[in-house]
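Class prep. Write one:
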Amino acid sequence: MPGRDHVRSLFDWLAPNYDAALLTFSLAQDLRWKSVLLRKLNPRAGERALDLACGTGLLYDRLARRLGPRAVVGLDVNRRMLASARRAGTVRQFVRADAVRLPFRPATFDLVTAGYLFKYVPLDQLARELRRVLRPGGRCGGYDFSAPLRETVAGRTYDRFLHDVLPQVARHWGRGDEGWAALMEFLGLITSTSGWETRIEPELRRAGFDLVELVPSLGGAITWVWARLPDGETAALDSPVASVPPALKRTGPERPLEPRSGRGPAG
């Protein structure tokens, strides 16, 4: 796992061009993936949502359109990412904090989203924090780049794109700035070697989630994570900070991850 300071500095540097870089790295699939994520989680009026690693606010904005801007909090550790998100000028709630030290009271949210976070953080700490801030029956979903499955055509194709094509595209894109090529090589390396997709399911189950699904896509180059807490149980885990902001089964992600039957959305 890369050093946290290195990751922060990397994305502070990338912030002004983050959306374009993400479009390239995801083969222009990222916006579609965000739509799939929301369709599966099915946010409902009256629920509160937390978007981890919110970046420039692309997923945050979609959640806010569904739930209202005062029902959604975006969190990121990178100052410049949040500065880019805030420049949109709409009513937005953003918090600068670490995803494994969430500054929220227990049972604050009905759902949590996370895009491109899992490969950068200690998964045991993340799982405990997710359980702590979610209400009983709460659900979380996210996705991240993962090691392509070389036994599949799609996996081999994306693996070549990741390690051979993308660094060359970055050199051309950077127009002599080797920082872009170094960035893409770093992302390719951590995507292929972090192994987060093999470790997250047991950590979520250990933390108390009773439904966990892992769904590989694009030849394993992207892995979806869906999880839900049982009803009637609030995590009794302490947090280093406690404040509230203002205001596996490999199956497809087609079915919404609903709140438990008989439980309406929390206010």
Q: What stands out?
A: The beta strands are 49-52, 72-76, 94-96, 109-115, 134-145, 211-217, 222-228. The chain has one domain: 4-228. Confidence is low (pLDDT under 50) at residues 235-254, 260-267. The chain has nine helices and seven strands.
